[in-house]
TrEMBL record:
The lineage of its organism: Bacteria, Pseudomonadati, Acidobacteriota, Terriglobia, Terriglobales. PANTHER family: BETA-LACTAMASE-RELATED DOMAIN-CONTAINING PROTEIN (PTHR46825:SF15), D-ALANYL-D-ALANINE-CARBOXYPEPTIDASE/ENDOPEPTIDASE AMPH (PTHR46825). Keywords: Signal. Residues 192-519 form the Beta-lactamase-related domain. Residues 1-25 form the signal peptide. It holds the Pfam family Beta-lactamase. InterPro entries: AmpC-like (IPR050491), Beta-lactam-related (IPR001466), Beta-lactam/transpept-like (IPR012338). This is Beta-lactamase. The keyword Signal applies. It comes from Koribacter versatilis (strain Ellin345). It comes from the Bacteria.
């Protein structure tokens, strides 16, 4: 009896120890390979904590307010059943309603993929979503339960998990060691077909793209139309806004200044530009030239302040705005994208080249003499007036009902005061000249050296990680997801979305320019399609792009169902006529017939209303291209409207 009792005691001790081990969290000192309960491999990011709760592997962010759960489910016949079982294992009391679901194509060994987006209330400051994957005989469900601020600043770390979550025993397709195909007529035709099909599926009116291989342009043309309601198609000379692709051109100018020994990548910025200042003194002193455009300083996005007040902004005031900003992560710790910091890179260079000239003019002149002229980029310009008077493409975006519409081009002028971050206009012919120079390691077509290879390539050196397969340098990303380095950068403004892509080891490059939302879908999948054509890869890009487009319009329709348009008259009647915020300026409220109008000074929009799950009321802009700006009505004694980005909150008070 004593022996049996002792054995029972030992069994209980082992069981308790096992359960305790399952529920205790392990904080990680480095990115660490892990597996789900059923053995599917993934990588858990540094500083996050991992614990196992039954079938759920729960990864918790350092802030303690955000979780990603990977839940293995054996006995489920459908994705919906698997999802229900996953929520029961992770958070059985969750009450968020599903807003929209989308089926996704098979990928990376997973099948039966489905995406779920949940409706949260804006005051929760939270996003919730789920994905169901199937492989073999079981499901793996991913639940994302993330605070907005944490999701934005730790998005690169979350990608560590998602980019390497694969079925047990599966190896991702790789093109390492494969020879690149010649881009002949058949392969070019396949890329053209992909773009034309993308136009039909996304509703983007027009796209131009170009290809270069072994130093020769093998294709450059456009499809669709430059402007809705007209028949003129874009071509290789049509100007589009290249948005954030301007950043790489800005760092190219910096590289030439390095060659001229006017600065080096490790020069403290305050040594070159004494008035440079961030809201944090320690960070200000730590910033070197290479950090201005590395997205690695811990400075967050803070775009609303220049989008809503651009009529009053100048290059000088954009830099002054930096002086009010505080880092939200440690220096070099996380990928955090900052347009204002990138603008400071260009204006620092301008001050070095033209110290006695106004910053905007100095930057424009320096870019012309250091970049555009020597590369033969004759059409590329930083002037809106010049671009709009030339062969250019208009901006477009679907309206709230998903119908194609013109978008307000004037709002894109918001980028002018910080144009080193995204203010250039260019075309396929000019951008291919730039890409060709990158592929030639700084040489021009005549063989002369434009910029040293060392200074040029330093811009691609990793400064901060985005996931496990992508690094960000200075205005350029390097992606090795499929075993070969792909250098690229995207650019996105209202109704203009672009990408430039090159494979340095294969001497192949491409540029794609689009003139409508959601053009980011086409440019995002074009890179994968290019790899498929160059290496005879698995045909995935077509299905992915169709799925992306279907999901986009399904989400748009789901949002529309929640809106009241025109805005609810009873709620509109409760609003004050004027509101003000110190950072974002004034909002004037008026009625035009049954429509409620918010006038922000630089632009205005009719508003919709939405009743949120927590009972609060939101007023939401519906102007094509600017739809989705949300103002939550306050409940206090004073009339207020609250607007947020992921890491900042702006309260407008009645006046």
């Amino acid at each position: 009896m004593r022996a049996r009792a002792f054995l029972a005691f030992l069994f209980t001790l082992v069981l308790v120890s096992s359960l305790s081990s399952q529920n205790s969290a392990e904080k990680l000192a480095a990115d660490t390979p892990k597996t789900t309960v059923l053995g599917n491999p993934f990588i858990a990011p540094k500083d996050w904590s991992v614990r196992v709760k039954g079938p759920a592997t729960i990864i918790e962010a350092p802030e303690g307010d955000s979780w990603i759960a990977l839940v293995d489910v054996k006995d489920a016949k459908t994705a919906d059943e698997a999802l229900a079982a996953a929520w029961k294992a992770y958070k059985p009391d969750a009450k968020w309603p599903v807003k929209v679901t989308s089926d996704l194509p098979d990928r990376d060994g997973w099948s039966k993929r489905r995406e779920y987006d949940y409706q949260t209330s804006p005051n929760e400051k939270r996003g919730v979503g789920a994905l169901t994957y199937y492989s073999g005989t079981a499901w793996t469900v991913i639940i994302e339960d993330l605070a907005d601020a944490t999701a934005e600043k730790r998005g690169g770390q979350a990608d560590v998990i998602f980019s390497r979550l694969l079925p047990k025993g599966y190896s991702r397709e790789t093109f390492a060691g494969k020879k690149a195909n010649r881009l002949d007529q058949a392969r070019i035709a396949e890329l053209s077909r992909f773009v034309e099909q993308g136009i039909k599926e996304t509703g983007v009116p027009g796209v131009s793209f170009g290809l270069v291989q072994d130093g020769k342009v093998v294709f450059a043309d456009g499809f669709g139309v430059k402007e809705l309601g007209k028949s003129d198609k874009p071509d290789a000379d049509t100007l589009f806004m290249i948005a954030s692709n301007t950043k790489a051109l800005t760092t190219l100018m910096l590289a030439r200044l390095v060659d001229e020994k006017k600065l080096n990548w490790d020069t403290p910025v305050t040594q070159l530009f004494p008035s440079f200042k961030l809201g944090d003194e320690a960070t200000t002193k730590s910033v070197l030239v290479k950090h201005l455009i590395c997205a690695c300083t811990g400075m967050p996005r803070q775009d609303l302040e220049w989008l809503f007040e651009y009529g009053k902004m100048t290059p000088e005031s954009s830099l002054a705005l930096l002086g009010t900003m505080q880092p939200t992560s440690k220096f070099g710790e996380l990928f955090q994208y900052s347009n204002l910091m990138a603008a400071a890179a260009g204006y620092t260079a301008a001050h070095v080249v033209h110290p006695d000239t106004e910053l905007g003019k100095g930057y424009d002149e320096a870019m012309q003499s250091y970049v555009f002229d020597p590369l033969g980029m004759k059409a590329t310009t930083l002037s809106f007036d010049r671009a709009l008077a030339a062969n250019h493409s208009e901006a477009h975006s679907p309206d709230i009902n998903g119908k194609p519409a013109k978008a307000p081009m004037n709002v894109n002028e918001a980028v002018a005061p910080l144009r080193p971050a995204g203010g250039a206009w260019s075309n396929i012919n000019d951008m291919l000249k730039y890409v060709s120079m990158e592929l030639a390691n700084g040489k021009l077509p005549d063989g002369s050296t434009y910029v040293s290879k060392e200074a040029l390539l330093q811009r691609r050196a990793p400064q901060v990680a985005i996931g496990k397969d992508v690094t960000y340098g200075m205005g350029l990303e390097v992606d090795t997801t499929y075993g070969v380095p792909v250098v690229h950068h995207g650019g996105d403004l209202i109704g203009h979305h672009s990408d430039m892509i090159w494979l340095p080891d294969q001497n192949v490059g491409a540029v794609i320019l689009t003139n409508g939302d959601p053009g980011w879908l086409i440019r995002g999948r074009f890179s994968r399609k290019l790899l498929e054509v160059v290496f005879d890869g698995r045909k995935e890009a077509d299905a992915e792009l169709k799925s992306d487009a279907d999901s986009f319009y399904a989400a748009l329709a789901a949002e529309r169902k929640l809106m009241t348009v025109p805005a609810d008259a009873t709620e509109s009647a409760k609003l004050a006529k004027h509101y003000s915020n110190a950072s974002l300026g004034d909002v004037d409220v008026s009625q035009s017939g049954s429509a409620t109008i918010f006038d922000f000074g630089e632009w205005k929009s009719e508003m919709s209303t939405r009743k949120n799950p927590d009972g609060t009321i939101s007023f939401i802009t519906i102007l094509p291209g600017m739809e989705g700006s949300e103002f939550v009505v306050g409940s206090g004694p004073k009339k207020t409207l609250t607007m947020r980005d992921a890491q900042h909150e702006y309260v407008f008070e009645s006046k």
